[in-house]
Amino acid sequence: MSTSLKKALILLLFALAVIGGVLIWNNINQPELPSGYASGNGRIEAVQVDVSSKIAGRVEHVIAQEGELVQQGDTLATIDTAQLKAQLLRAKAEVASAESQVASAQASIAQAKAKLTLAQQELSRSRELTKKGFASKESNDTLISQVAVANADVKAAQAALVSRERNVDAALASQTEIQTQIDDAVLSAPSIGRVLYRLAEPGEVIGSGGKVMTLVNLSDVYMELYLPSSQVNRVAIGAQARIKLDILEAAIPATVSFVSPESQFTPKEVETASERDKLMFRVKVRVPQTLVLKHINQVKTGIRGVAYVQLTPLPGEEIGPWPEFLQTLAQ
Q1: What is the rounded CA–CA span in Å between residue 201 and residue 213?
Q2: Helix (H) or strand (E) holding 206
Q3: Which of 13, 143, 192, 276 could form a disulfide bond with 123, CB atoms 3.0-4.6 angstroms apart?
Q4: Which UniProt keywords are present, listed alphabetically (predicted)?
Q5: Are 70 and 215 in contact (CB under 8 A)?
Q6: What is the rounded CA–CA span in Å between residue 57 and residue 130?
Q7: pLDDT tens digit string along 230-246?
Q8: 79: exposed, middle or buried (C-beta count within 10 Å: 0-12, 13-18, 19+)?
Q9: How far is CA 33 from CA 29, 254, 280, 321, in A?
């Protein structure tokens, strides 16, 4: 074995020994919890949100920078809409043309109704004359036929109006669809958050669903911990919790917002009581949004710490106050 390899192994063993010593020291100095409380290691987390484009096109502007704090509704980027705007002008022209056809159909109905009224009046006069012998039966039959034709013309004109009104609806729907695509070209922040990555730059062509930016959603800041089955059945949604970060003296108040209905890290079927006791369930404790907003510039994800949860008391059990090291809360 070469000398350099021996030195590398010695350094590796020394590093492992230091890490092991630190872990043992931390475990020994971990404050003991009173009955009615549970704890678990975790880290501050927040959901990452990919801001994507609903339409394909060329990226026109990317406004937000990496690390920038954005508010809900802030414009993050825009997609070029020159082609869509041309399509919108054409759609508006088609709407105007369809509406003029509706007006023409309405005029045709009025004209057909006027002809029907005239034919009915002439038929009425012809019947009186026929009764008195001043008009022939043939001329009366002719007027009856004219009334029927005029009545059919009215119905045809009304049907044409309905058809042209549907054409207007179709043209308006097409116009609305294009306008919606133009509106979708403006990509806005779905919530308050911090820009983690810029995934596209101006000039790049992206497809529908193409990612432009990734945000850390700061409207939901939480820590996850894992508790055994013997404790998780006593964890209620809304229960009080505390988060103690490695870099912060004061504890952060929190509440339990989620308890997994399924166990983690173990097989689905376990046979013995000792194995069943090893079942671990994921629990999420959420930091109040008001506290997050108050310290929004200091909020960082990935910071490690310990989460403490107050358990539901057993029959006849009294849960004491929070341990002294968790009573000083971040304001």
Answers
A1: 10
A2: strand 205-206
A3: 143
A4: Coiled coil
A5: yes
A6: 77
A7: 888 889 999 999 999 88
A8: buried
A9: 12, 18, 19, 11
Contact (CB, 8 A) for 43 and 302: yes
Query: Pairing relation of β-strands 186-188 and 193-198?
Result: unpaired
Report the alpha-carbon distance of residue 251 to residue 306 in Å, rounded. 10
- Which residues, including other chains, have CB under 8 Å from residue 233's CB and lie 6 or more apart? none
Q: Return the SS3 of 174.
A: helix
Tokens linked to 96: 């105007």
Query: What's the CATH class of domain 33-66+203-326?
Result: mainly beta
Would you say 86 and 198 are in contact if contact means Cβ atoms under 8 Å apart? no
Residue 280: closest CA among 230, 315, 329, 239: 230
Q: 211-228 and 193-198 as β-strands: parallel, antiparallel, unpaired? A: antiparallel
Tell me whether strands 280-286 and 205-206 are parallel, antiparallel or unpaired.
Answer: unpaired
Q: Is 261 left (phi over 0), alpha (psi -120 to 50) or beta?
A: alpha
How many angstroms from the chain centroid is the CA of residue 61?
Answer: 23
pLDDT tens digits for range 195-221: 999 999 999 999 999 999 999 999 889
DSSP string for 54-112: SS-EEEEEE---TT-EE-TT-EEEEE--HHHHHHHHHHHHHHHHHHHHHHHHHHHHHHH
C-alpha span between 11 and 24 (Å, rounded): 20
* pTM summary value: 0.68
3-state secondary structure of 288: coil
Instruction: Find residue 252's DSSP bridge partners.
Output: 243
| Coil, helix or strand at residue 322 | coil
* Residues 287, 301 contacting (CB under 8 angstroms): no
Question: Nearest-CA neighbor of 43 among 221, 162, 174, 180?
Answer: 221
